[in-house]
Each structure stands twice: as structure tokens, then as C-alpha cells.
Specification:
- By secondary structure, the chain is mainly alpha-helical.
- The chain has a domain at 28-62.
- Helix content is 57%, strand content 0%.
- It is built from 3 helices and no strands.
- The protein has helices at 14-19, 31-42, 45-64.
- Helix 2 (31-42) packs antiparallel against helix 3.
Length: 67
């Protein structure tokens, strides 16, 4: 049995990376991406602006904690 130091990952697919400590978890959604997605979906500037503010607040809470 090989030690962890000399262990090499043979495949480089997503499941292998996740199993051996690759990047995993939810990615952050920027406020601009959220607004663009809403604008494409609904076509409403008002809803896009609301989505931007909502996502910006959510990201701020993740960074600095709830106020």
C-alpha cells in the first residue's frame, strides 16, 4: 500500500478531484451575474435591479456576517 505522499491520481475527471480534495462546494454568484440572468429571463429592468441588490446583500452577509 502506497503512502499518501507517493499516491498519484490516475484520472482527472470531476469525481476524482472531488474525492481527493479538489475544489468543491457552491460557487459564489456575483450580483451582476444574478442581475443579468434575471434580465435575460424576464426582460424587466426593475426585477433585474431588485435581483442585483438582493444578491449584493447576500454576498455582503457571507463576507461580513449578518448586521
Amino acid at each position: 500500500m502506497s503512502t499518501r505522499r507517493y499516491f498519484k491520481i490516475k484520472g482527472k475527471n470531476a469525481s476524482t478531484k472531488k474525492r481527493y480534495g479538489g475544489k468543491s462546494g457552491k460557487k459564489w454568484t456575483t450580483a451582476i451575474d444574478a442581475a443579468q440572468g434575471t434580465l435575460k429571463k424576464t426582460g424587466s429592468m426593475k426585477e433585474a435591479k431588485q435581483s442585483l441588490r438582493k444578491q449584493a446583500l447576500s454576498n455582503a452577509r457571507k463576507l461580513f456576517g449578518s448586521i
